[in-house]
């Protein structure tokens, strides 16, 4: 079943994407790959973050920036932060070679809504584009394993060291949200009930002043709770 972004006109509209990668062969390959997706339209491409910002100023409607991280002039993390600040309606989906904790946490803290590595296939990229446009947080399977593994290796923090009055369990749940797990999956991982997870999430959201999982993931990344 084909999924398309529905605009106020009621007519199906393609997801307009800007591709940002400093390697020309990769950039052109991504443009060609995205052109194969019926519900995606490539609005433009750029070789670094500075070019991407200039392009966004010139273009009309853009839904997603597909962002590499390691680029000259203006790298992907800095560009993500500037895009999300200047164009809050544009989602950033990171597509990079790196899946280390520092890169993932930096991208999330900058405001990225999704994180994939460059071995992702066409279907995975298409699904991730749909997810970030819908306001969801999404990760590639390998990235989810990396974040979850980092979290499981970390001891629970001392509550007196946590920000905003968070309990250790609330901080742990916030960290797991950054992996893209559902409430049921978090419950299974922590061996607690799903209703308990919801309670921890509601309490944590109230304490840190966020409204949804994307904002919570950014908070967790900025506060060092994401792994």
TrEMBL record:
* An example Gene Ontology biological process: regulation of DNA-templated transcription
User: Domain Response regulatory: where?
Assistant: 16-133
The cross-references to CDD domains, in alphabetical order and at most eight, read: LuxR_C_like (cd06170), REC_NarL-like (cd17535)
Positions modified as 4-aspartylphosphate? 68
Q: What is this protein called?
A: DNA-binding response regulator, NarL/FixJ family, contains REC and HTH domains
Q: Which Pfam families match?
A: GerE, Response_reg
Molecular function (GO) terms for this protein are: DNA binding
The UniProt keyword set, sorted, is: DNA-binding, Phosphoprotein, Transcription, Transcription regulation
Gene3D superfamilies, sorted? 3.40.50.2300
Any idea where the HTH luxR-type domain is?
159-224
